[in-house]
Amino acid sequence: MTAENAKSQMRKGTLEYCILAILSRGDSYAPKILAELKRSEMIVVEGTLYPILTRQKNAGLLSYRWEESPQGPPRKYYSLTPEGREYLRALDEAWDDLVLQIDRIRHGGASPADASPAPNYEYES
């Protein structure tokens, strides 16, 4: 196993979470989501993104609407549903717990994060 392979697997495991986090800040369309993921160095291709968006929509986490575009065909804008916002809150808590657990393992006991106050997850409705 290579470090690059391990890093790739970690990214795949968090990609759905990252997409929901991006959409928690406002509605967006696939190319813009891809651009934000790439800017954050979460390298993703369209063939990976669209099935995830479809799966999240089918699970009731996302809805979409079509909007005319000044440059070309209409765009499909995705937004979080109330269920999607609740699911993201649960993922945020699970992520914080996981990071804390890994910190404890890496640092042999209590980590600096143990002393930090719990984050407050508020998303636009």
Tell me the number of strands. Answer: 3
What integer is the average pLDDT? 89
Strand order of the largest sheet: 1-3-2
How does the overall form come out from the CA principal axes? globular
Level of helix content?
Answer: 55-70%
The main sheet comes to: 3 strands, antiparallel
Helix tally?
4
How would you classify the helix and strand content by structural class? mainly alpha
CA-CA gap between termini: 43 Å
Low-confidence sequence ranges: none
Quaternary structure: single chain
State which percent range the strand residues make up: 5-15%
What does this structure look like?
- The chain is mainly alpha-helical.
- It is built from four helices and three strands, in the order αβααββα.
- It has helices spanning 3-24, 30-39, 46-58, 82-107; strands spanning 28-29, 62-67, 75-80.
- It has a three-stranded antiparallel β-sheet with strand order 1-3-2.
- Strand 2 (62-67) and strand 3 (75-80) form a beta hairpin.
Layout of helices and strands, plus pairs?
Blueprint: H1 3-24, E1 28-29, H2 30-39, H3 46-58, E2 62-67, E3 75-80, H4 82-107
Helix pairs in contact: 1-4
Overview features:
three-stranded antiparallel beta sheet; 125 residues; 11% strand; 57% helix; 3 strands; mainly alpha
Quick overview:
This protein is mostly helical. It is built from four helices and three strands, in the order αβααββα.
